Fold this protein.
Amino acid sequence: MDDRKLRILAAVVDEYIRTGEPVGSKAVSKLDGMRVSPATIRNDMAALEQLGYLEQPHTSAGRIPTFAGYRLYIDKIMSPPDLPDEEKHRLDMMLGGSDTPEELLVRNAAAALTELTQCAAVVSKAVPRFSVISKVEVIPTGKRLYVILLITSNGSIKNKACRLEFDLSAEQLEFFTHYIEENLSGVSVDELSEEMFDKMVAAVSAYMVSLSPLVKGICELSEDLRQQELTVSGGEKLLSCDELDKMEVVRFIEHKNGLSELLEDTFSGIQVRFGAESSSFAIGNSSLIVSKYKKDGREAGSLGIIGPMRIDYKKVIPYVDYLTEKISSLMSGGDEDFDQETADGISEPQKGASDDGNR
Amino acid sequence: MDDRKLRILAAVVDEYIRTGEPVGSKAVSKLDGMRVSPATIRNDMAALEQLGYLEQPHTSAGRIPTFAGYRLYIDKIMSPPDLPDEEKHRLDMMLGGSDTPEELLVRNAAAALTELTQCAAVVSKAVPRFSVISKVEVIPTGKRLYVILLITSNGSIKNKACRLEFDLSAEQLEFFTHYIEENLSGVSVDELSEEMFDKMVAAVSAYMVSLSPLVKGICELSEDLRQQELTVSGGEKLLSCDELDKMEVVRFIEHKNGLSELLEDTFSGIQVRFGAESSSFAIGNSSLIVSKYKKDGREAGSLGIIGPMRIDYKKVIPYVDYLTEKISSLMSGGDEDFDQETADGISEPQKGASDDGNR
DNA sequence: TTTAGCACTCAAAGAGTGAGAGTGCTAACG
DNA sequence: CGTTAGCACTCTCACTCTTTGAGTGCTAAA
């Protein structure tokens, strides 16, 4: 692969992204920095086609990049420019200052991305694997009716109603709550497992059979905790690009198939994935560009966009990059937040430093 | 409006629904029960066009119904047939028995509707205006950090974290909880208002200024309670019908514009609304067919479908009708359920029934 | 009031055409 | 040897022209 071929490939991809039309040898030759004649370029393009980086829609048309062509372009050739300062300021304005609640911060970022890229924005909140159960409460709210409240060190609160066979006496309730706190508080979300709860059901049933629905309820809540939160916004933008199948787009917006698995993968920096490369997340010619943001050094979620493969990567990647960086710093920054504080132990005083989070 | 004209209108609508093509006089004349010649029908069709019930896409095409035409057809002419017993059984199977949790019941109904009609299903849970606040708890969970828990008689549970300026002593907490319970328990969701909370903020601040965030928190939770829950499923089906604007469909699926207001209207029986008739809910040529289901005689939510205007009303309306009927009877039926019990108050012990339900 | 007949209109589908863009190949060039 | 000019060839796209057929409105007769 000589250097000129790479430059030609880059030129074809750039041009194709810009115009959406197949790119011919003449067009490439006219571009800045191309010192060779169309004929030479034709030869190289034929070679690039041989190698699987370019293809022709039909015999007498120009070339368009293949998947492999895009891959090579993105991973090896293209280098996204730095964002100019005024753009950074603009993004800062859109995000909001350090006193913006985290949730809003992320929503603003999504809005900014849809606005700037005219694509759908994707936002996920990572499962807080390392945050710990900080409090479990069982509150009687009616005849044989109880509400279970589960609170974690990262500020998630889950509740659930639960009906028992018999009413509990104050002592029984006391016993139960004590038992649960003993067994659960300080346990990380990642450590929670069915088996653990099965054992608790057994133990608790020995004391009083009808307590087991409560344990099961807590078990269900803990499953909720492990559910990744996923939002896709601005999905309508995807309908404007006609290289995407509308049907697939809508199905995706409704079910978000496969996205969750994809975002749970560990990776660092910007990640670009093509719809066709992944079996589950499957909008035909789409491209997913995401990055993870961190909170106090731990992955806290991811943020990115979904657009056509033919998207302006050079323009878009710096946006995603800057936003995740910025969010990471805003979240971890000096300002007090729920997590930082609560991590030091709500129910049992625990260790010292900071927070939950993960990896 | 003589009878024959009505029959011709009906024939045109039926044919148009069946074929999707403009309907000509000859086609109508060939239909069962039409004893007159195409020429006669032509005259009547011209009259119907004059009256605004039919229109021609272009001079030499057949006729298609106008909005008014559909309206007349739906409201006055068409009479949807009764569902045959085997169909009813089929639907019963799809719904699930009387031991199915309410939420699942409704989800099943939606699934059945998308399946049977190949349209998007709409489900809403009515704001439980008449249910009352049955419990308010404030639980300390960390340094200056509290979780507010709000429970209503219909089983909704809402929570929210709240940060105060100072920590509360046990007495202060006691006082506050007591005050809140005194003022809120037994108050119906409908009666809750900003002013009410403003007054409470004032009263509570007199005792201790830093309590007001808690009241505000409760106020926000009460706003959540008044939020109607809305789900649209199977939205991808809408993309198959090309009379609907894909863009509008996706925008609608994402934001559900205007649907909530529309479903909050009071009406009884089946309601058919056209997208263009309503300013806010606006998918161009769409038709919304909904009915309300009840629980113990009170509106509990609505259920229906969104499809193209050119939908088979005769087939679809009986489905929606039967499903809402059935759900109403399953929910209110002999079987124990949360609301029955809790409606009479949880915090005050009262009569009896059973099950849970939440969120 | 209904019907047959007829001239008229218009959209949709097909056929033919020319322009233009782009190719691959060959042979000449430095 | 790599590079370039020239050339014949291919294929799509946009355009025009024509034909076809469905459906109409009107008029006059039954």
Remarks:
- Chain B touches chain A through 47 residues (CB under 8 Å).
- Chain B has three domains: 3-76, 82-126+228-358, 133-226.
- The CA atoms of residues 262 and 270 of chain B lie 13 Å apart.
- Residues 36-40, 43, 57-61 of chain B lie near DNA strand C (CB under 10 Å from a C1').
